[in-house]
Amino acid sequence: MVRRGSGGGWSLARAPRDITLYDAYAAVEEGQIFSRYTHPPSGACEVGRNIGDLLDVEFRSAERALEEQLGRTTIAGLLHQILASGNEPRNH
């Protein structure tokens, strides 16, 4: 997605219209977006025995939705929004 610039720094290896936020995210992150439990639930508990599989389904659905949303936004689109907003101060 990027390549080393001739005078140092970096430049995009593809046109901004061809790079989505999902591309940028996937280039620097790996694995699941939402973390799962750090300690396995108790197998002695009915909820604990079943919650992992149920949450995996919900988390994966949310991850797909986020990936789809990020995939609809390009770097060029963000630049267009920035330039269209002018120099008006914004609260962040």
UniProtKB/TrEMBL annotation:
Lineage: Bacteria, Bacillati, Actinomycetota, Actinomycetes, Kitasatosporales
Pfam families: Rrf2
Transmembrane segments: none
Protein origin, superkingdom: Bacteria
Protein name: Rrf2 family transcriptional regulator
